[in-house]
Amino acid sequence: MTPLARNAAVKLVKNFRMRELEGLMTHLRVFGPLPEVSDPTASAAAAKIGKPVINLPNPFIPRKNPKTNKWREPKYSLRRQADLVKKAHELGRLDVIPPGPKKNAFELRMKRVQQSLPANLPFNVEKTEPYRIPKTSKERNLDRKIKEKKFHIAVFEDDQRYFEEELQRYLPQFKLDEAAEANKDNLQETPEEAKAREGRLGNKEMLDLEIDTAIGDAEGFREELAKLVAQKEAYMKGQAALTPWDTPVAWAGEVKDEKTPGSELGTRLYAGKKRMFKGHLWERELAHRRRRHSILMRDMEARVERYKTYYKKRKPNPLKPSRYSKPPKLPF
Question: Where is this region: Disordered (predicted)?
């Protein structure tokens, strides 16, 4: 997807969302209050950015005016719905489009395509990256600091793991040295052995100190990381107020999708029929036409004879008056 096409798709989706947000008061004035809508996805997204869920009327379905009892067609035609769904899919943000006939059909078609693909493809299927609002310099700076803190925490955790493994490796010897240190007055050992034992005990103290230091440093960086994460969340909540088009929305209205036989498999043309293809009209009428033709050919001689003798019976002599003359008509 080229940058120009991506920008056009972003502009189209943004304008759609802003138009619906700005037209909420007009809808309430004409159609009255909206019913309560429960959308777990929108609620989770709203809780993440700390904003309430906005209920909007679904512009892809018809609505009945409570004052005139007349139905009004959907605000967007099927062609415009299909265009919005296509652009949102190219951006990877199909969630910002309300449910409708074209969106449901598109999702069903994508599901069929996904199921038809083999498990192990010989090539990589390119997935569309979801469109996100471009990051500001402050957000990028916070992300960089958070990444650094996570790196330092991982380093200290690796150090702690390494020193603990070393301690476990020489732990039996350290226990023997500690027991010998406690009873060194009753031991008979050379000065070299005593010096080696003291060195091993010093190594154990050093390992314990390194483990405690790694744990303390990791805890310090975790506290700093928690502060940075809280700072970023507060900043993102403030930024969310500046991008109202990306506000979580719960769409009011039920989409009545007609169940067409064969729509799940993509065979709507022949599903639910006794025969897949009845044939052309001339093919279906061919047997009847041949039967009628055979009857006409069978009786042709009698029909010709009857035609030729019709006037011969009525008027054998054409020069004489007819025997079957009708009564004269009055001139008025």
Answer: 311-332
Helix (H) or strand (E) holding 249: strand 249-252
Interhelix angle 300-308/286-298, rounded to 10 degrees, is 50
* Structure tokens that stand for 168 in this block: 């476990």
Token pair for 114: 């996904």
Domain ranges in the chain are: 3-116, 137-242
**pLDDT of 87 strictly over 80:** yes
The rounded distance, in Å, linking the Cα atoms of 149 and 143 is: 10
Adjacent-strand bridge partners of 55: 250
- The DSSP element (H or E) to which 57 belongs, if any, is strand 54-57
Structure pTM?
Answer: 0.52
Q: In angstroms, rounded to a whole number, what is the distance separating the alpha carbons of residues 175 and 204? A: 10
Average pLDDT over residues 106-130: 71
Per-residue exposure over 175-202, b if at least 16 CB sit within 10 Å of its own CB, e if not: eebeebeeeeeeeeeeeeeeeebeeeee
Phi first, then psi: what are they for 262, rounded to 5°?
Answer: 85, 0
DSSP β-bridge partners for residue 54: 249
Tokens of 51: 């904003």
